[in-house]
Amino acid sequence: MIYMVLWDTEQLIIITAATENRLGQLNLPQRYKCHLCLLILDGEDVEKSESGNIICKYCHQEVTELCPLDHCHCSHYVVTGIIYCPICDSAICPECGCHDVAQLSRITGYLADVSGWNPAKQQELRDRIRSNLVGIEMIREKVV
Asked: How many whole angstroms separate alpha carbon 144 and alpha carbon 129?
């Protein structure tokens, strides 16, 4: 199955600006996600901690900066396959482009979340060539 996110016009403008190194010229509002409150926050909902980290002003936990393409409302429960964001290179839903996904891989018989893998192993996963062998007849040559 080939996946292709159907980006809207605003997202296509952001992708084009990012590929041309003009993302800063768009003056996009910075958004953050608090994984404790499960809120999407803008600049007025965050503050700096004493150590200089950006934290949620409601629960005072560190927040994650969101990619400008992330729309944060994926309605898909489980999909097979994964693609990567053209801007931040993080895993995204192959059907809608949402960045809030968990990527699982089967390792030695059990499922594991790849976010716990080291960066080299995660890059190896990105570089894998995937193929679909369903419906293709395997031809074996006889060795004489």
From this structure: 32
